[in-house]
Amino acid sequence: MTKLDRLIQILCAERGENAPVLSDLSDREKGRCFRALVNVRSPKAASKEFLQLQDEYLQEQLQLKGITDISELLPSPIDPELYLWQGDITTLKCDGIVNAANSQMLGCFCPNHGCIDNAIHTFAGVQLRLECARIMEAQGKEEPTGQAKITSGYNLPCKYVLHTVGPIVFGKLNEKHEKLLADCYRACLVLADKNGLHSLAFCCISTGEFRFPNERAAEIAIQTVTEYKRQTQSKIKVIFNVFKDNDYEIYSRLLKADR
Hints:
Strand 2 (75-76) and strand 3 (79-86) form a beta hairpin. The protein is built from 8 helices and 9 strands. The termini are far apart. By secondary structure, the chain is α/β, with parallel strands linked by helices.
């Protein structure tokens, strides 16, 4: 029995369900099954056996995908402390990465959903959701838009994850949306500096499910980061992480960067 087989068995047993006939599934199908079960799992403690197997499995998957270290990236021509990188943020080795969270701050519960919140929680491990739940329980209310929280990165190559809730755009973009998005970037930078992080990778906050226009979001991101660094004299290195080609083209033009 493989690690993945046993992980699926444990997760199904937690739910009071029988595991699927694993011999009928391909490795890819088993991986999707594991991810789906993790995605819907409520925040709670896990057994020592599960955590050991999960951590070993996730580290193996990380090695298969490959890790990109910030030291391998080329700085932007406009600022030696700004970077543009296209890739999977869960494989990026830097001090911290930013997660575009929702107001519950518990990660995405939709099985195998393609959002960054789902990916970060999946590949960090179930420990991340539990830490977020403890933070939210202590806070006693949903996370307001434009603020940020920090957690460990667990099985991710980064040390920390900073969680921020971006604005949701219903209808036409307005000044309030823009201010709240800038608040997200600023709150993450303040929190990163407060915790001694030397590097931070931002995803494209609010541009997916939250429908913030990509071009304007990139402009706000770069403007907010450069203004913060100028006003505070912060030396933190900032990576603008993009996944889609369209976002890479936008940031490349704004940062005058190239592959």
